[in-house]
Amino acid sequence: MYQYTDFDRRFVHQRAAQFRDQLERNLAGKLGDDEFRPLRLQNGWYVQRHAPMLRVAVPYGEIHARQLRQLARIAREYDRGYGHFTTRQNLQFNWIPLVQSADVMDLLAQVDMHGIQTSGNCIRNITSDALAGIAADELIDPRPYCEVLRQWSTLHPEFAFLPRKFKIAVTGAAEDRAAIAWHDIGLHLRQNAQGEVGFEVLVGGGMGRTPVIATRIREFLPWQQILVFIEAIVRVYNRYGRRDNLYKARIKILVKAEGQKFFDAVEEEFRHILNDDADGSAHLIPQAELDRVKASFVLPEGVAEAGAPAAAPANASGAFARWLQRNVHAHRLPGYRAVTLSLKRAGQAPGDVTAEQMESAAAIAERFSHGELRVTHDQNLLLPWVRESELAALWEAAKAATFATPNIGLVTDMIACPGGDFCGLANARSLPLAAELTERYADLDEVHDIGDIDLHISGCINSCGHHHSGHIGVLGVDKDGSEWYQLTIGGSDGSTLSGAAVPGKVIGPSFAADEVADAIEAVLDTYRAQRAANERFIDTVRRIGIEPFKGPANAVRRSTAHAA
Amino acid sequence: MKFIDTHKDRWHALGGEDGPPVSINAEPHLLLDTNQWHAARAQWPAGVPVGIKLGNDQDVEDIAADLPRFALVALHFPKWTDGRAYSQARLLRSRYRFQGEVRALGDVLVDMMPLLARTGFDAVVLRHDQSVDAAERALGFFPGHYQGDVGDNRPLFAKPAGTAQALAKAPSQEFVNAGASI
User: What is the pTM of this model?
Assistant: First the structure.
């Protein structure tokens, strides 16, 4: 993973010092709460339902055991003993008193961590493929580009107060595991016919109240120009994005409203920067800089580019075979595998980890993966450097630490935001529904029979649980002070399995809280009754449409029976 | 960064009635809005310093041709969290090579100082309740930055070898317990 330079370390340390200064002024009454708010947000501090929430940046999902142990310490000493991994590969704490926030930032800085731009109307922490640098289907490792982008966007003086938040996702594999079309900017590394590396650039995707799939603005942008091109996009957005209505302030609205005019404006701005500006070519990335950053992604000591001797476990059966099938993934190096530690299990919210579990995961990573882990977009942890020969031992260790549920990509591997239990924005709770479904689908035979499916739950229209992109999406809504849930079917994150990115379709009026799990079960039962041989849920939906699901879902209604 | 004391400032707005001006006398250090400037520009004598005030929804491009005639461009922050004027300042300096003063007006807070300085502002009128001492301190937290800015176009990676290492070791203040005292 990326090795911090002395400058990086110093920078994060000074950011913590700056935050402490702002906190002290706030506590002394010299910096009003309203004015402190945007400053703390840009360091990851929200004030939530019960206490401040801290969102810690995990840049493009890479995290080291040493860092995870420090997060465990923070969870234990400052929080209530746990944290929550998010769809944007970050980690959230829920219970840290604001007066201790500066101390926590110092502890984070000790292990090269921070909360810079994990919130606020700025360029957010950049996300990527959890298998970046190790995927068997990868063309170009996106991590060095992510790091160059991270550095460029960190405390960018012109773009700290945009109309709204701004999210960038990058992938370099054949398969899009980063849902790039759902981002403000989506970047897909490609090679052109001459073998040169560049980016396919998408712009204007986003979830929220108005789900929009990003549009391609460049088919192939030479990699050297990426900072300048993004500068052009963000400057046009900063100048002309709407600021009069929170719900119309994302770049997707500008792109939709202006259409070709937006693309023309970006291209013109791009030409102006390169041709007219004093700093025109200053941010073209030189080969030497890319090489320097690439070299700081050190292959862990002992991992050989040539790989390890292949040792595919022979005759695996039963639970171990299931785990190999679901939680173990192909690797670019022969003899190695990537392994997901499932954070989806009964008794805990999706993505939640206790301090003890963080330490267990750190110990497992040290023993089996050279201390390195990834946070995945679907709220699990992943070990990037596991030798095939150690899979059986890893399985035992993962089981002992509650990480071995063989459910990756299955119905219980659901994405869920923290919802109304924690979040000040939520209209409804998501965790009780996640718990109910986990309990209902405890039988692994049944879960495996249902097969590949993306179930995504958001507690409100802000869509942190990515309900729009779920094959089954659940959206919490508030009507007259009670919790209701809208069901959508057929959404896609843009992966091969799910098809081109598209928001799901609503199958009827909202369900009451005590109906929604039954409705989901009815949808799944309908699929199992209607599916062709070996047909996945999403393919059945595409073949038969959403109509056949409506009747069975409506049949479970009790209090809402009159509405349907 | 120059902190403007409005009581001692030479620059002043055009007095009198609101609405389109009938006639404008070319006196030194008038700060005009774009309507006023358009009414006066044909007769404005060279050598009489004049400034222009831009709303943050106005395009810098529209005054680009006249920029050499201005000694001052004042940009406005209606709310401090509205970041449009940063782009305006950056365009004035980097694209149009404006050499005069770029001044921040409106809801200008001490914590904006690093952003203002790095996008090309060289003067500010702080909001009445803000402290100049705190604003000066706010400029001093970071030994360097990753991306280039108006002050130094080069990003860290384009600076001479050893720069990042030297910056990492450069002395800086910790400011602990200082924020509350000023």
Answer: 0.96
